[in-house]
Write a structure and sequence with these properties.
The chain has helices at 11-47, 52-84, 87-105, 115-145, 153-158, 163-182, 184-191, 193-197, 199-211, 217-225, 232-239, 241-271, 277-305, 307-329, 334-353, 355-362, 368-384, 386-396, 403-425, 430-433, 435-438, and strands at 3-4, 444-445. It is an all-alpha fold and 448 residues long. The protein has a single domain (3-445), classed as Up-down Bundle (Growth Hormone, Chain: A). Strands 1-2 form a two-stranded antiparallel ribbon. α1 (11-47) runs parallel beside α3, α6 (163-182) runs antiparallel to α13 and α13 packs parallel to α15 (334-353).
Length: 448
């Protein structure tokens, strides 16, 4: 049996791993926002016009929900593969599926005679995207952390979280530029295809980055020692059921606040508060750009005080400002609006940035990919219903100023409770979690 010499990863290799982990989540976010704009403006008239104006709009938005519904299925499938054949190989599959499906949306035919075919194809491509998304995030976090020194894992776990602001800013900026540059007619005729077709060169970059890195030390150890679980999803549920519940709670604010602030609050701000759409989009974009700084900063803080503590601080801070921020929003000028979006974004960002590090500490290496993916997917599905839930609460309260604050406060309280429990439970995953650090201390058998 040969051995692999112990060696810490070079700085260049570490950067490539971080880039490979981040690029997939960026493409995920880019796809989500590009498709959201497409669904709002074009999907209904192009593919569902036979349903009438109202039915076409509902059908187009339903195609957004499809990706959320199938996401847990993708988490199970790709989580299993990630724990059986490896993190790197599985992430090559997920990024390929995601990029190809996104690019094909841009090639769908429109016009008379193609509506039925286009509608069916669109639904199938959205299912493919949702399946790939289910296996992307958990693998990206493990790819980043299992290559890193134990003390630096919280920071590297925050880097995939940068994908969300990168993707949202890129999608929003591109759509704004194209609408202003081409005009509505050209966008409807052919311009809408461009953002989807851009996924093709993006996938080429993503594949290059992921192909150029090695499998993680943790998985190599599990593979060499024969410790891989034959059914990792069931193994995770059977051996760590409480960790699943805690992980879902921990994820609720980071994921849910994005749905609440960037989806519901946008519509509420225009319809009920009288803001201009461009004002709200500009404020949200400023908040997204700020995350380029705050996400790695909170990741660094997590290396000093622990990921679960950073999640808890973000949740506690958000809980304290949940009602004041919506009270002030009712009479805000544009300058105050920007300030509120910034402040209201920074605190949930703390929970978002430290989410990967907290969840990675909860689960054992031999079923970590499955556990992270399934827990995150469940939290994402639950968060997908938040805009509708908040709207229903607004109807019941006659759009009282405090109704979005109730939802944000509830998310904060759930995540705060989860973070406090995670702080107590995080050592349960130490059996395999330190395998990456062991590579620098001992020789690892090379698998046959």
């Amino acid at each position: 049996m040969t051995t692999i010499p112990a060696a810490a990863p070079a700085r260049g290799a570490t950067r490539r791993v971080a880039a490979a982990a981040t690029v997939g989540t960026a493409l995920e976010s880019y796809d989500f926002y590009v498709y959201s704009y497409f669904a709002a403006f074009f999907a209904g008239p192009f593919f569902f016009s036979a349903l009438g104006e109202a039915g076409a709009l509902l059908a187009s938005f339903a195609t957004i929900g499809i990706a959320f519904v199938v996401r847990p299925i993708g988490a199970v499938v790709f989580g299993h593969l990630g724990d059986r054949i490896g993190r790197r190989a599985t992430l090559l599959i997920t990024i390929t599926l995601m990029g190809v499906a996104t690019g094909l949306v841009g090639l769908l035919p429109t016009g008379e005679g193609w509506a039925t075919f286009g509608a069916v194809a669109l639904v199938l491509l959205r299912i493919a995207q949702g399946l790939s998304l289910g296996g992307e995030w958990g693998g990206a976090v493990l790819l980043a952390t299992e290559h890193a020194d134990a003390r630096q894992r919280p920071f590297f776990a925050s880097l995939p979280q940068l994908g969300s602001p990168i993707g949202s800013v890129a999608a929003g900026g591109l759509m704004l530029a194209m609408f202003f540059g081409l005009g509505p007619e050209a966008m409807a005729a052919w311009g809408w295809r461009v953002p989807f077709l851009l996924a093709i060169p993006l996938i080429a970059v993503s594949l290059y980055l992921r192909w150029s890195i090695d499998e993680t030390p943790v998985f190599r150890r599990l593979q060499a020692s024969g410790e891989r679980a034959s059914n990792p999803v069931w193994a995770a549920v059977r051996t760590q059921p409480a960790a699943f519940g805690v992980a879902i709670l921990v994820a609720m604010l980071g994921i849910g606040s994005y749905s609440l602030m960037n989806t519901y609050t946008m519509g509420y701000g225009v319809a009920a508060l009288g803001f201009d759409e461009m004002q709200l989009l500009a404020a949200a974009t400023i908040g997204g750009l700020l995350q380029f700084v705050t996400v790695p900063l909170f990741g660094w803080l997590a290396t000093r005080i622990g990921s679960a503590r950073v999640v808890a601080l973000g949740a506690l801070g958000t809980l304290l400002i949940a009602f004041p921020i919506y009270w002030l929003l009712g009479s805000a000028t544009f300058a105050v609006l920007v300030a509120l979006m910034v402040v209201g974004g920074i605190l949930p960002t703390a929970s978002w940035a430290a989410l990967g590090g907290t969840m990675q500490e909860l689960f054992r290496g031999r079923h970590a990919y499955s556990a992270l993916s399934v827990a995150y997917a469940i939290a994402a599905v639950l968060s997908g219903f938040l805009p509708s839930l908040t709207a229903a609460l607004g109807e019941l309260t006659q759009s009282a100023w405090w109704h979005p604050g109730v939802v944000l406060a509830a998310l904060s309280a759930l995540t705060l409770a989860g973070a406090l429990m995670a702080q107590r439970m995080r050592h349960l995953g130490d059996e395999d979690a330190d395998a990456a650090q062991a590579v620098t201390e001992q020789q690892v058998p090379e698998p046959a």
